[in-house]
Amino acid sequence: MYYISFIYFLTGLLILIMGIFALVKNPRNSINRVFSIFALISVLWMGLLSQGYNVLPFNLDFALTLFRLSYAIAILGFYTLFLFFYLFPSKSVKLPKIFIYLMGLFSLGGAFVTAFTPLLLEQTFTDDTPDVLGPLYIVYLIYVLLCFFLASYLALKKYFNNTGTEKKKIGLAAIGFLIFVAFASITNIVLPIFDIIILQNEAGFATLIFFATLFYAVYKERFFNIAYLSLHLLRIVILFVVYLALIVSIFVLLKNHSVLNDSLTALIVASSCAFAIYLYLNLLFPQFYSNSFKHFRKNISDFEIRLFDAKKFSHLNDLIDEIFIEKLNIKKAKVYIIDHEELEEDHNIYAVDGFTKELDKVNTYLFKEDLKAKSPPIIGEKMQALNAELCFPLRSQKKVIGFFILGQKSRKRAYNKEEIEELIGVIPNLETNLMNILVTSTLQEENDLMKQIIEEKTRLLKRTNMRLKTMLKDQDNFISLTAHEFRTPLTVAKLSLDQINIVHKKDLPEKIRKDVKTASDQLRNLGQLIERLLEVRRAERAMLEIVNEKFELNQLLKIMIKGSQLLAAKKHIRIIYNESRNSKIIVCTDKIKLQEILDNLIQNAIKFSPANDTITIKLTQNKKNKSFKISIKDNGPGIPAKEIKSIFEKFKQGSRAGKGVGIGLYLVKQYIRIMKGKIDVISKEGEGATFNIELPVKAKGCNS
What's this model's pTM, rounded to 2 decimal places? Predict the structure, then answer.
């Protein structure tokens, strides 16, 4: 019994230490607080359970009280376990708040009833009699199973919904917690129903599994963001306690199961086995620190590679802590930002003073050992106050925006020349990433409304992405469906930019205002491209609709030419329109599609005409075959003969086309085809091009 109590004490101490450090690391974080409570409850449960078995059978009344308290504590423990998996790593699985609160109230009430009444446990067991369970035991059992299955469901749901490090953290937490709870539930809840009293006293040993997985998660995955490798004294204490726990655990198993009756022999065997396990753990977890330059360079390279994954200042801080403090064993590493009030209060803001002004004069870095008496005293004083051995100014456009400091290395080793050169090499990327973070943070602070719009856009894009996976199964529908789905998020994105331009136009710098306008124009162009893609799909499926109407053709052409004058004026191009002799030509055809045809051809003519040139548009009517003809002539580079046939094909462009996707002329030809007309092009390389379209004056279905 003494050895069992010792193991309970060691495991409880380890769990309590982890709970305290999780709370100290971030006391405001609800996940850390819940875990700390769970750790405390686990320790109390083990202590009550162990002490209860210690007083049996000498004091049955006291043992009964302790067991009732252990049951009561277990109720709270199961609730905190469920709450932990509900919160960790985020509330991605939604549960009604009223359900959470009712579960909490039920747990508190159940714990009180269990501790101070015989309704759950009427009498504890003796050598001759089993436990006498109360009438509420079945309720207790249902509640425990509910908590256990809810925690399991949440853990599995979040495990499969996450990726990368978060997935590993959830998996490790689930393995340790659920094995611990399952073992404790079976031995102390399920088996007593059948009057089976086995391994109840050893149930606390299951916490070793819990601690082992938690220890591994802290060491490998920065569980709770606890920097295990930087806790030097704690690391030594934990390893020593684990080693002792291994010895005592093996010793107890050998003695309790009569494998070795001789205590000395059992102790020697236990020590040997524990030492073998300890050596294996040393192989599994390699040497924590390597002071070689190779190790230093490897970690600096890792820092440089992962640097641009840090999208927020907190992410950058975590990466610096992991690489410089934990892996390189440097006592202090931190980035300070100079007088940037837009950032949150918990960031490392450094006010402008004499020290920051002196940083403007530093070309590369400040090394504490190199500072001479002739240097301004404020440099030495500030570096002393900041515990900095090295200081690197961080600049953007030759202006200091912050600085990066490094403290002493382990055992007060000096930084050598090669290490400093490695650090200098990574500074440009650190400057770029820091500036990106500052710009992002500023825009987020100034545009609260933008955040809501972006969140909505993100949800729309996620839904679009899910639908895209389905679209890939049917390639024939891909372009059409993609275009449809992109229209809504593109509209949201354009509205977002328009909102910024309207609400914050006076507050935004000129450069950002231009960028916003450029982005808005590009989104509009992309929207037009999507509409054309939809038209391409309709044309391929013979789904293009014709809506014929009567209108005056000369008037339409004048309106189209007037609308194109602004674009032509940018290149000082003059558009000449030769009207038909019959100045008033009434036609009946699809006016919208004719406008799109003319708009495409006129814009192409402007695009490929040289500056200070002319474009000629001519309208003629053929009364004999009741048709009209429109010619659009430019004096551009012309089209090679071998390319004339291909310019009307989908996604094909001539050598003079430049930017584009090659669907404009394809749609022009499709429109003319369904309008029962024809199009041809006359061109010689170097002599411009003339596009001729001919359409019936009255389409089918028009009234005479």
Answer: 0.41
